[in-house]
Amino acid sequence: MQKGKVISIQGPIVDVEFALDAFPLEIYEIIEAKTYNGQKVVLEVVEHFRKTEGQSGNIVRCISLTSNFGLQRNAEALASGSGIKVPVSEKIYSRILNVLGQPIDKKGQIEAGPQRAIHKKRKSFLSDGINKRIKFKIMETGIKAIDLLFPLVEGSTSGIIGGAALGKSILILELMHNVAKRQESMCVFIGAGERTREGNELYYELDKQGILDKTVLVFGQMNESPGARFEIVHTGITLAEYFQEQMKDVLLLVDNIYRFAQAGSELSTLLGRVPSETGYQPTLPTEIADFQERITFNAQASITALEAVYVPSDDLTDPAVVCIFSYLDSMIILSRQKVQLGLYPAIDMLTSSCPFLDPMIIGERHLTVAQKVLKIFNRYEELRKIVAIMGKEELSLEDRIIFERAQKLQNFLTQPFFTAEAYTGKKGEYVHLEETLDGCERIISGQLDKIPKEEFYMIGALSKTLESQRLDYET
The CATH number of the domain where 245 resides is what? Predict the structure, then answer.
């Protein structure tokens, strides 16, 4: 190991000097130092300095991946000779790991086994056999609004986009619960820059639902250094790639991908880089691409990604959010107006988009129902503005029927979640796609016109109870 010394500490940025004849360190190489009380500090090389006047050796600038409180100038630093390596084996199932691949769940150390570097050279897409896999496979989520209008396709990347307190994390957890419990795929969850409380709740919820044994969780939370929050996504995707190579379909969940971009912005500022015109780091597109382009599929297995995207100040034109958009297949945008009305999941059906509404992928019946629902919602938005000013009585009979059916559809597409039972007091419901299509068809056709819209709110499938209510209202 090469020995150097710490010569400068500026928050999480640490400069380390090595002898002139030392072998040059690689970018992303790990350096270890110790604080005055013996705590280990892990540093990652991100820049090299040329020798300048007043400097006697080779200087590398590093970011701290752990807390460097107590690290002193002239402290000894040892170069490890390699970058971050994380354990890859089935022994990490149900474990919680940090950015370095170390367990943080107090269940003991992970037994020694194969390890893999989290940074690697990109491979050609053609070498992964991407062109050999042309069949789309729909993954049923049990969430009516998503299965109907934004079907989840194996190997795709979907974003759940919205501002603060719109339900992104809850929706991600519900998708994880429903898909992992009923599909053969295993899950990798990346907690990037979110609250420690949320990670704690997630762990116990997964344990309670019995799906922890096919899940791996990696966390770089908001109380950790920006280096840990930035590199945690690379740790997570490395684990997902390993399981994909083992011929296992992987469900990759990221909460929150915006925090990854935000951590990169913090590091860029601390490293003294001149920001771009938008205020973000000049390397933003490259950093996003380094992660997103590793999410792919081959002829044997796929990585299906679900990413929560925080939108600062509800501004969908934010440069970091727009950069993330370019890598998403489906965009599920959450609406603050829907939250205020108590419509959960609070998906803005008209602003969101999905490229998989194609008869070759979802079938003719599904496409027809989805198009009719969107058409009714589109007309409802026009009528809603008129009703707000003049009242529903001023609408024509035809428009009033559309308006009322749209309200029933809007309520029907709400749903009690398993992971939100503690908040709603209602038992979670899993609704099969066939039941969702059937319910929408019955509402659109007018079979349920005599039932008040309130009866459709926060239910699962249109049950026999609702059918009996229909008969009561008719008689």
Answer: 3.40.50.300
As given in the structure block, the two tokens for residue 384 are: 């809603």
The total of structural domains in the chain comes to 3
Whose structure tokens read 């603050």?
336
Of 29, 154, 174, 194, which residue is the catalytic one?
194
pLDDT in tens, the chain (475 residues): 789 999 999 999 999 998 877 778 889 999 999 999 999 999 999 998 765 555 556 889 999 999 999 999 999 999 998 999 999 988 899 999 999 999 999 898 988 789 999 997 665 554 444 444 557 889 999 999 999 999 999 989 999 999 988 999 899 989 988 988 887 778 999 999 888 888 888 888 888 888 888 899 999 998 999 999 999 999 999 999 999 999 889 999 999 899 999 999 999 999 989 888 788 999 999 999 999 999 988 777 889 999 999 999 889 999 999 999 999 999 999 999 999 999 999 999 999 999 999 999 999 999 999 999 999 999 999 999 899 888 888 889 999 999 999 999 999 999 999 988 888 888 999 999 999 999 999 999 999 998 999 999 999 898 755 665 665 555 5
Buried b (16+ CB within 10 A) or exposed e, 57-81: bbbbbbbbbbbbeebeeebebebbe
Q: Which amino acid type is present at position 410? A: Q
Contact 187, 175 (CB under 8 A): no
- 125 & 227 share domain: yes
Is 76 part of the annotated catalytic residue set? no
Q: For 95-167, where are the alpha helices, taking DSSP H only?
A: 144-149
- Among 302, 330, 307, 368, residue whose Cα is nearest residue 150: 330
Bridge-partner residues for 190, per DSSP? 218, 254
Q: Where a domain ends, among 308, 328, 357?
A: 357
Question: What CA–CA distance (Å, rounded) separates 85 from 123?
Answer: 19
Question: Does the annotation mark 470 as catalytic?
Answer: no
Selected catalytic residue, list 168, 214, 248, 470: 168
- Reading the block at residue 80, the tokens are 């490890």
194 is catalytic: yes
In the set 34, 116, 133, 195, the catalytic residue is: 195
Please give the backbone phi and psi of residue 105, each rounded to the nearest 5 degrees, phi first: -100, 10
